[in-house]
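#struct-queue
[09:14] JT: dropping the first one here, sequence first, then the structure tokens:
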Amino acid sequence: MNPVLDQERANFLAARVTTASKQLLPQWMRPEKELPVVNVPTDWVRFSTLNHRTRAEQMKETKTKGVYDLFSADPLGTAAQQAQFSILVSQEGFEDLKNDLRARGQQEPAVVTAEGVLINGNRRSAGLRSLWLKENLPSARYVRAYVLPSDATADEVIDLETELQVAKDYREDYSWVNEALLIEEIFIASKKDWDRVAQRMRLKPEKVRAQYEKLQQLHQLVALSNGTRYHADFVGNESAFEELSKHIKDKASDEAASVRGVYFIGTLAGVNYRDLRHLRRKDATSFVKGELASDPTLAQLLTVVASEPADSSDDFLDDVLGADAEEPEDLTAVLSFLAQRTPDEIVTLPDGATVPVEDLLNSVRSAVTAAAKEASEEAKDAQAVIAPIVRLSEALDEITRAGTALPKARAQSGWDEDKFKKLVEEVKTATGNLESM
């Protein structure tokens, strides 16, 4: 928190606090958990530019506009506030939130700093502001909010936001990307103490580590796009990143590189993560390369990317995918080429035809899906080859166990010797039938 308050705003809020009643805010860190609750104009409060629920969207906005201090240079200024408002109103479910506010009004108080910056309730306040400014809805003119003490520290604020985030009523506001970014921030601030992170997030250590590891894979894919793709673009791909991070965790570098490259290009192209599962194998790259080469358009794309001059991103790709991975060259080149281009960009092929990158991605999606199907069929064939031996081995184990248990069973009063002998004869018959096949 800035130790120097915006005194005019602080005075405005302080005047309202003097006559305000107090309510309990259990998540507040300090022993004194009762805070004043006031009503302030919805167009007066300021959205938090440190809002972890919108971190990924902010990262995208700064890069898109090329203003990297958009949310930090003047957080309470017009540019930052308008950009944050635009992010909030564009989030999924915002119209449903407005409809609920229109019908029921504000149910829970928001939380603001001593100068009126929202720590919690940003989306609800944005909904109220939209209803007031666009529809002149009287019930949306004010937002009700707890007011934090003027000496609240940054650490206390992050802890409060985290406590509210893990509460059932608030957790749904977080995407997996923003939750993982918060975990990463706490991890770094806590000197890489996983127990501390887990404690603050109210999650098990393995859960916060899993979120962190998924994010590291996403960091790599975003970085190799060289500014074309953003973290917020992959909110809907959580399952793919989760399965990828779990699979490669304990794998040799060549298999990890192969699977990572396939998952990255498959995710870019929109391949269903359930299909990508079949390519969690060391030779995944070979399957995909074969399908790419068999498609006439993609075969020409391979020629185009092979002629692209090497740049500094190649070194990064080697770090990500592994310089010594099994035959990674063609897939690495295609991945780099597609990741660094927008869907509407036009590519000229060797035969003179022009094709949008979006069409190429559609073709890649079909190719990767076909590769996944081929890998799945091969896996089934491999299982079919060894199935009789596996089943016989299991049967032998069971017969051995039956022999071990036989003396004790025969000593019991309910033992059926005739049934036992009949089953032994049936096993002999079955074995004979196998030998004659």
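[09:21] JT: and here's the second one, same format:
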Amino acid sequence: MPAAVAERARSLGFDVIRVTSPDAVVEAGLRLRAFVADGLHGEMSWMADTLDRRADPRVLWPAVRSVVMLGLNYGPSADPLANLGRPAVGNLSVYARNRDYHDVLKGRLKEIAGLLARETGAAVKVFVDTAPLMEKPLAAAAGLGWQGKHTNLVSRDFGSWLFLGAILTDAELAPDAPETDHCGSCRACLDACPTDAFPAPYRLDARRCISYLTIEHAGPIPAEFRAAMGNRIYGCDDCLAVCPWNKFAAVSREAKLAARPDLEAPRLADLAGLDDVAFRALFSGSPVKRIGRSRFLRNVLVAIGNSADPSLAPAAEERLADPDPLVRGAAVWALSRLDPGRLTAARRAAETDPDVRAEWDAAAAAGALFLS
């Protein structure tokens, strides 16, 4: 690695930069095939569609000879799970409390890649979680950390809090040594999962993962997972936050991605009232914007239903007339938990969407009385 490239990477905020070879993730590719074959990827059909390219960077770009992996520490300055004890507010994953990390990293990576190209005369390609590339196994092979029992990257220096970026190049760069696994007998991350999404260490069932359910899953949240979601309205940091290696992380965060004050602990009542324009304005530049208003309000209403706070019932009741059935169905569930008396027979009779009517039926089966 040219010294000038490593120096520039650190000046742009990256905490670590190392190199691996494109053939270093063969075993990870085999594990990915098994993951998809078992259906553990859920609705993420793009994983199956791009399986060959994910399993081998040389399929993605045959000319690649080296992979430069970079990590940026985004560890929070306060307890990322503190909001879980405040049911009237929503909890967003740490990475989503400010700008979209794709935007944060990509411009910097392009500058570093440009310098690498000038220093080596080689071609380069830049990736930030937007292409079929197995960043975490490649990062482990490069020595940035190891994939822990929660399947995320763990670093001895930065715990479970590293954004990853990759530069592929046709230059022949000396690879760094891979990191070894330091999880030992610890299973804190596995035990912390609210939905038991880990059928075994180092194996994730995405269909049970709250991050998947709140972000990737398109329909109603399966009933069996709603209570376990609590007030997690975008992603879930539980398995990351309890990792003991976090305590060894560098103390100085340099405010690289300090949380926006309005996204640290947003009130559920305010979020439930967002129309499309207000949603887009609030989450402009945020990864939350990508899931759209309907999925987001679905998550918010599940959190309201879990709040045990009857004062939030009016916010849910207002969404019974929402134009999107996904939102209306979540509102029915929330009210069935908080204040079933607001679920009137007239409103039930007016509903035509089959999925929403199923929510009404479930509320009735749970003992809700629909008064006229």
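[09:30] RK: nice, looked through the second one.
[09:31] RK: The first strand starts at residue 16 and ends at 20.
[09:31] JT: good to know. The two ends are 73 Å apart (CA to CA).
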